[in-house]
Amino acid sequence: MTLSASFKAAEQRRPSRFGRMLEDRLPYLIVAPAILILLLVGLFPLIYSLIVSFQRITMTENDTSFVGLLNYAELFRDTRLWASLGHTTIITAIALPLELLVGFLMAQLFIDRMPGRQIFVALLVLPTVISPIVAGATWRLMFDVRFGPIGQILSFFAGEPVRILWTVNPSYVYPAIIICEVWQWSPFMFLLLLAALSNVDQSQLEAAEIDGASYLRVLRAIVLPAIAPVIAVACLIRGLDLVRIFDIIWALTEGGPGSMTETISLYTYVQGFSQFETSYTAAISFLVIALLTLITTLVLKRMELAR
Amino acid sequence: MNFRRVAGAAALLALTTAAAQAADKDAADTAVEAAKKYAGTTISIVWEAGLQSLDPLNYSGPQWEKLTGIKVKVVEVPTDQMFTKIMQDFKSGAGAYDALNVIPSWMPDLARAGALEPLDKYVDKFGYRDELQDVAAAYRDNQMQYDGKIYGFPDDGDVMLLYYRKDIFDDPKMKDAFKAKFGYELAPPTDWKQFDEIGQFITDKMAPKVYGAGFFRTAPYPQYMFQERFRMEGGKFFNADTMKAAVNGEVGLKVFKQMLAENKFMPPGVEQWNFVDNLAAFLQGTTAMTISWPPYGRWAAGYGSGEEALKWVPKSQVAGKVGYALTPLGRPELGVGFDLSVSATSKNKEAAYLFIQWLNSKKTSLERVQLPYTLRDPFRLSHYASEKYRALWPDAPAYLDTIKTSGEKGLLDLSLLQQDKYDEAMTKAISSLWAGEDPKAILDRMAQQFDAITEKVGIENQKAVYKVWAAKPGAYPQ
Description:
The complex is a heterodimer of chains A (307) and B (478). By secondary structure, chain A is an all-alpha fold. Chain A contains 13 helices and no strands. Chain B has helices at 2-24, 27-35, 54-68, 79-92, 107-113, 120-125, 129-132, 137-143, 166-169, 172-182, 192-206, 221-232, 250-262, 275-283, 295-300, 349-360, 362-369, 381-385, 387-390, 396-409, 419-434, 439-457, 459-470; strands at residues 42-48, 71-77, 99-102, 145-146, 149-150, 153-154, 161-165, 289-292, 322-325, 339-342. In chain B, helix 21 (419-434) packs antiparallel against helix 22 (439-457).
């Protein structure tokens, strides 16, 4: 068969209508199983939780009837829930800027090449690889009134025994949590900002230097605009993490004294796994999802990253 | 006619012989014999993770398998997750657990939900009622039944004891100085005023080497201490007619103020102490008095000190110097405890039952409460009287006698529907107390929380359960 004859034969064998339809939709068919699994894994629990939130399920009762919006109405009357959201906001509002500031200062310090830089960077990043529950337990020991080094160091400087009950005294519980949180997560900010600072256009910096611009002017006009997208993403990631903060507080104070440091994650856990209010816990979860979605959308819009 | 008489006599003889044979066998042997038909099966049992579970893992599980051919799978669960796991298994109907360890205060919730198998028919079938009479009354009468049915066998003699340093209390100089100051003998305190005076006196004389007392101040112990002291001072948790919380009256305030004031003569930072902190301080001789569960007494005497599993327990510096007494006012809190139960969803109910009967029987339980590495405490009259146990260390007779008396007088933990919520409210309140918040404000908040919980559970439902609980001999001091 000649080449031209082959082409003719091929033209004659044009795909049928079904074949064309199959050809058009083949990409979708190929990805469909993966999408289906993702939907099952991701959406099913969400939908199931949503259904549960309209029921009356508790671990101790057999009544699972639908109660409409009763659980959601209960959210508005639950003062402990709103207090826990308040505690979460306090911790986020203080810890996030501190982590950003410390991370930025550390990144500034390490932006210049120096001997042993890589070793120092690796050591500084160590806290972030530790499990938060371990970090919390470690800091609990550090703050221990009898054996903790913090008390001993303070006593050394004070010249007399300093006995601060970091995890009991209302004046010190938040500082204790924030110290631990900033210690663990500032290196995360440091890493991201170090990478961002390394990519700031050197020619602009050199030009500014030649023009005699001050450090603050350079920072405000060149550096910060250049690293702003990274700062936004870093703040978003850490902000969401802080809203979900659990382990460190659980290890340090278990939400105490009383409910003074109980965050929304701790409260949700207590309702779900200590008080067995399954449906109410689902309602709290949806409140948190709604709040986080709102915050994320607003932040992304604000940072013009949503596009 | 003659044939009838002969047949009747023969039947009577056969019955008498069978009864005599059954009477010869103890409950442990009966359980073993009956369980042999299940040889080759596996039963699972939920047990508190940690030291407690070394009992079925190292001792009773292998023994049972050797005797009956039934394998025991131990499901270790941390205490705070046991209720959830049991209920999850029940709700799912999975039947993953056959036998259970259940904290008695959970019994109303578990029994009402249907998660526990009523045991009466098995108790009768395998002739266990007589041996149950040997269980100390405080546990038998308070922790075994719900709504007239047996749902669990009390298997752990948890009760609070006062431990004190005999060497300090017997020191002539201390005795003389104390009597000169307070006008009565230095001896184990019989009320909280004496406790405070003795505690402060020892701290004044001996701190920082030795403090008057030390307590386990983090959850869950302080709420048991509050429950005990509140009732002994005349408090009632609820108004029985309205089910309104009554914890925030004068009695509650007095107890809270006393508890807070006691921290002043205890070692600095006592507000943060947990079970191990307090144990370490007492065993190292830093505190002259403490109140805790029975294992403290065994470990203070050095019992089990060579055990690998007890390496974390500080070496006792006070062996031979520790005295045992009732807690001030003489009605100690029973404080937690464990029952052995059968899961309602078990697929091997009879085999599971036979295992717990064997575990709980006079013979087996006596061995188990002497295992140095687990935390099961004596709970039978025969345990208290056991010559073998009484010979374990020089002061063991005094230890067992005190546990016996404490058990007889023990006050039952509050046990209502959704008890964990009331417990949490008490725990949170006490942690606020240590933080320096106004005691009255804390108590008012606690009462509000109690009322909210009661309302959610249903006032009439809860009233009925409270009525049953309050009528028990160990609920309120008579």
